[in-house]
Please model this.
Amino acid sequence: MSSSLKDVAARAGVSARTVSNVVNGSARVAAQTRQRVQEAIDELGYRPNLAARSLRAGRTGIIGLAIPELHSPYFGELAGLLVDEARRRSWTVIIEQTRGNAEFERRLLTGDSGRVMDGLIISPWALSADELTATAHTSLPIVLLGERSARGKADHVAVDSVTAADEAVSHLLGLGRRRIAAIGLQPHLRNGTAQQRAEGYRRALRRAGIPPRPEWERSVTSLHREDGARAMADLLDGDTAPDAVFAFSDELALGAMHVAHLRGVRIPEQLAVVGFDDVEDGRYSHPALTTVSPDKQQIAQRALQCLADRIYSPHNDVPAATLTIAHRLLVRGSTVPEA
Amino acid sequence: MSSSLKDVAARAGVSARTVSNVVNGSARVAAQTRQRVQEAIDELGYRPNLAARSLRAGRTGIIGLAIPELHSPYFGELAGLLVDEARRRSWTVIIEQTRGNAEFERRLLTGDSGRVMDGLIISPWALSADELTATAHTSLPIVLLGERSARGKADHVAVDSVTAADEAVSHLLGLGRRRIAAIGLQPHLRNGTAQQRAEGYRRALRRAGIPPRPEWERSVTSLHREDGARAMADLLDGDTAPDAVFAFSDELALGAMHVAHLRGVRIPEQLAVVGFDDVEDGRYSHPALTTVSPDKQQIAQRALQCLADRIYSPHNDVPAATLTIAHRLLVRGSTVPEA
DNA sequence: CTGAAAGCGCTAACAG
DNA sequence: CTGTTAGCGCTTTCAG
Model:
């Protein structure tokens, strides 16, 4: 068995209170006493028991991070930044992979996990923000990622996907492309992201006097390369081949480029490709991928700031905030030939 | 405030004991009582407090997963599988990103984190397995990933990197390549992985009667695409250009291919490339990457099995095991032209 | 089958 | 500056 605070107290010949003070540096302790206690701690290899501390304090120092999958480059990068940022604030992070399971997402919010988490950062997939917050365990501070919703008790941190998509498509239009396809619609999901990007896509087309065509809007079941590849193959098999593609994620775009390569379609000459997310793969693909780059560092910082505000507010009475994260279009070889 | 077991007991008109029994299904409870208690639970929205439970049980149901970075495709995929597998065993996972920091790695092992974790799965980076286990807090069950060491109190789960590297290089030799470079040595680290792959590389060369040449062994500081790109550029600037490259990770290989493309080097005709890890990017790169594929699913399952054995063994007296994970060479377009 | 009560390790209010 | 002690919410031994 490992030693407890009491053991240390006994060994140092002081009371538990004093040991606690030394450990937490909470009150002034006589230098001599402090040293004696410290020695006892070292000799016994004493480590405070977090469960006991949490039980008293009502806080665990642990926050949850729920994302669809760790695997994907976008969520991987984001999770990495969030964990670093959490560490900076002395929080430990529990990872929950929802795998796009609606029931699981819902259960996380209702606090079935046994109040281990002081707060939760969740990137919804199957459910809409409203559905999520409706079932939310009221006392659990929540921050929603990549989702925008009007009302709600939770904070929202996201880029303006409509505007960003519009910019991406406008870039293609500016290059003289007219037959612009979209890959990545997800009509079966309610998380809103795909809808918003589709909306921005159509808005840009309409502004240029081009009516959106349903056969150029391709749905996918997930956002992996495989899905992008399949959609691209379908498009190339169609009556009129597109001269540009706007993919709702870099992974989809990379899958699409893969198929284009295999079919001998030259990028960007015959087909210009734009992605979304700015993951590392896109910087090293061939050609490098033009993409919408959300400020991921900012997402991580803001999300944790929101959570901190909520956790440390006495009665969880902080009004719900909606933070829009900066983004910019990075033009690379997949739309404009490299020098 | 949220309700406690006591509140439920009061409301249902029974004792705390009975409520506890209902919640855990531990003892037989009269159907009628059970129902009354269940109603009280639902009405109050009662959730057991994990901190209190842990304090009693001495277990938290949380395990730690420490990896250098979440960001990278290999560790991202592995982490995803490990989290899924942990969930299957009703464990929650805390993620620690060591970022290759030796001090941090050491601190994790000494249990400074406050005994939140019932066990730890760690993929060492800066430290060797022996250094790690030497400082280990004896009572914390530990499983080491991607590392092999003779002695030690912890379990090891890893592929046989020497053999795998040998096979990869032998594949290149079989294709008639003779000027085979290696990218990915890490003389400043002690985690052993790079050394083993270098050893396998040299062994294969020697067997073919080719003396290893130091100028064809390239060191890197990290395993990212950027490092692979830099090393490849250096190699191409050298006196004799290699006709093949064995990279110690897929990321390094992808970075190397990127540079080769930019310089107009044709793959695989002029330069054959083999990676290690079998990450998804390599399946969609252009050309697709030949690579050593470790059975990641197996790594995840075995690692958690080991941890479970150790955690549930009464006195942590399970002898340290070394499990070798299956791997196979996947031949793709980066070494053999696609049909 | 259920109640009463001790105690896990720690913090903090109260006393000295 | 330090000791004593109640109690966080739960499980579990001992009675009944």
Summary: Chain B touches chain A through 55 residues (CB under 8 Å). Chain B has a mean pLDDT of 90. Residues 4-6, 16-17, 20, 24, 26, 48-49, 51-57 of chain B lie near DNA strand D (CB under 10 Å from a C1').
